Prior knowledge:
Layout: H1 9-15, H2 18-35, H3 46-95, H4 106-132, H5 142-150, H6 160-167, H7 172-177, H8 182-200, H9 205-230, H10 235-261, H11 271-292, H12 305-319
Helix pairs in contact: 2-10, 2-11, 3-4, 3-9, 3-10, 3-11, 3-12, 4-6, 4-8, 4-12, 8-9, 10-11
Amino acid sequence: MHIGHRYRLLQTLKWSRSAIIFPFLWAIVATVTFHLGGLEWLALPTLPMSMIGIAVAFYLGFKNNASYDRMWEARKIWGAIVNASRAWGYGARDLVAAIHGGDASPAELAAIRRELVRRHVAWLDALRHQLRKVRSWEHNDPAMMRLREVTGVAEYKEDLPAILAANLPEGEAAEVLGKINPAAHLLANQSRRLAELRARGLLDGFAHVKLQELLDALIAEQGKAERIKGFPFPRQYATVNSFFARLFSILVPFGLIKEFAAMGHGAVWLTIPFATAVSWVFLTTDKIGDWSENPFEGLANDVPITAMARGIERDLLQMIGEEELPPERQPAGMILY
């Protein structure tokens, strides 16, 4: 995601250059045709242009609101994951104990707590890798894939089997990677492990229920994230919205040209910059919605799940007393394209 205060003007112009260049060239063609070609009948009256512009503006507003809702919901999902993860960390630390009839040594209890926390870290890693897989409706052309690599999005460079193996008991990484949904199976393994600890007397009934409820909450949040990832913004809305914005940008010069021509003294040429500016606003607004609707695709406007997962990992490891923590990860600073 972008991590600065705001996009600089030059960044914005570079990102939206197609919404400037083509309207500018089209405005030149329309003005030359009207003024030098004598085709004054091309001028459009103001009223129908205003009606079309208002309709397109409403449609753009609907699309951008819906896109923003998807992005904000994704951020709330990961906020809930942060909270539930911290609760899992201190629950694993404080509720797993030998006071319920079990006979585990302090060293074994520490190892069990570490296992529960490390498996949770593996779940975070598996989940973020699953969410970063690029889908057909996301921006997946070669230029965008190169951009993900250049800007350092970790999931496109990491070796997931090695990452999972470093946090899981021997053989478990290979087991879960052989499943359709590795992240879900890691939570299932956590549930099975809790049942084993309950049977050994290392968890009482209350502690078992509390930790199981956290697993239920985590699988629910995973499902919500998968819903956003696996179901695109409806293509009919995205497609027609872009068509309308482009149609309006084609008509804009012909709606302005008569007004500027009436001012005399060569004012007709002002049609070019003003038509370009109006078209830029509409086309860029459409583009903003397009780039906001997929919050896990690993580009400039997504949710920084890589950095958030590392932050959770550091919190949990500190809770169980580990002193060597992995370095913080900042959201990958995006270069606009």
